[in-house]
Amino acid sequence: MSSTAVLGCIFGDEAKAKIVDVLAADADIIVRFQGGSNAGHTIQFENKKFVMHLIPSGIFHEHKVCILGSGVVLDPEQLEKEMEALQANGVSFENRFFIDERTSLVLPIHKEIDAWMEELKEDDNIGTTKRGIGPCYSDSISRIGLRMCDLDNKEYIVKKLNYLYKYHKISESQENLKALSERYFQFGNRMKKYMMNIPYYLDKAYRENKEILFEGAQGTLLDIYFGTYPFVTSSHTVSGGISVASGYAPNRIDLLVGVYKSYFTRVGSGPFPTEQINSVGDQIRKQGNEFGSTTGRPRRCGWFDAVAAKFSAMINGIDSIALTLLDVLSGVNELYICDHYEINGKAIYEFPADQRLLAQAKPVYIKLEGWTEDISDCKSWDELPERAKDYVRKIEVIMDIPINILSVGPNRDQTIFLIQEDE
For 174-205, what is each residue's pLDDT tens digit? Predict the structure, then answer.
């Protein structure tokens, strides 16, 4: 038995879903432990492409159990829309999909507040997806949120909604609140068979030697505490968040896999020292199809930032690296890796806590020669061109963590497992 966690270690969009999907083949249970419908997880196989926002990425493996932990904020409409789309493609949820009873609900009021807050900040807006994620987490922390376990009683739902609207000083008629209550009561009825006290389920699975795979959303550099605050998400995206958001003890997690892109991207506002606002950035964006799965917004693209990468590895305790989208760099003549920053004329090797300092950081680069070959059909390390190997080796040396998985395309079979080859 082992427990493995797959964590995005940059600003999100690291192709975590593909890595989870591949590793899920050997897992019994896949757990999504945080985030909401602001996350977009893309999976491709058998010439099909699926984008999920809530359902764990292991759902496409038959007989695997998929779980939404208590740290997820759940948009009822989005969840049912996703479930219906997957069911139409032959995916079954019976006896293999469960939601923690403690999971908080994203309500219409949260989306209203999210949009209003972004307008209020004007030029300093964070660039959220306006899907109500932050306000929902805020209400949960304020102990006024609506949770899955509340949905068994219409009067109780109305009572909680009344308090919620009063708390936010937003007027709503009793007629509308009752209609909303009925809507969520019916949703609760439909979801009843999927609801479970998840910590007990995971404890039992652990004692029965089941293989458990934890799936993170967003990325480490968007963590509410350790990301580029305030340009962050509203949950704990780091490894410490797994136990907090699932009720699974931290000493039972055996392997932490950090997913890094071969280059860096970011969606929304916030500092990005290695960003390339030039033809190279455009080339990477085009070759990598770097547009947000959730919003469709073009992602900001730049070079691999070892300062940020080593920080995220440190606070997560990363044991093994999955390096993704290596194929995107084919045809980029010169490649650069940021070794350290210069801030106010000083060499800085630590990732700053203050995003204002990070915004001033000038990257100091290591230069490598690129490769021209298409590597998307490579099935082994030996098939890669030498310059691609040099690039991977350089990142591995800098990180001082083994790179055990290489992804050279979006499909399952475009994955190179270096551990298996070394053995």
Answer: 999 999 999 999 999 999 999 999 999 999 99
DSSP per residue over 361-399, as a string?
Answer: -EEEEEEEE---S--TT--SGGGS-HHHHHHHHHHHHHH
For residue range 264-307, what is the model confidence (pLDDT) as tens digits? Answer: 999 989 999 999 999 999 999 999 999 876 677 899 999 999 99
Is pTM beyond 0.90? Reply is yes
Smallest Cα–Cα separation from 236: which of 227, 223, 247, 245?
A: 223
How far is Cα 32 from Cα 246, in angstroms, rounded to an integer? 9
Residue type, 129: T
Reported in sequence order, the residue ranges of 212-318 that DSSP labels E, i.e. its strands, are 212-215, 255-261, 264-266, 300-302, 304-305
Helix ranges (DSSP H) in 168-267: 174-191, 198-207, 240-246
The catalytic position among 21, 41, 114, 223 is 41
- pLDDT of 132-178, one tens digit each? 999 999 999 999 999 999 999 999 999 999 999 999 999 999 999 99
What is the DSSP-derived secondary structure letter of residue 25?
A: G
Residue 41 falls in the annotated catalytic set: yes
75 is catalytic: no
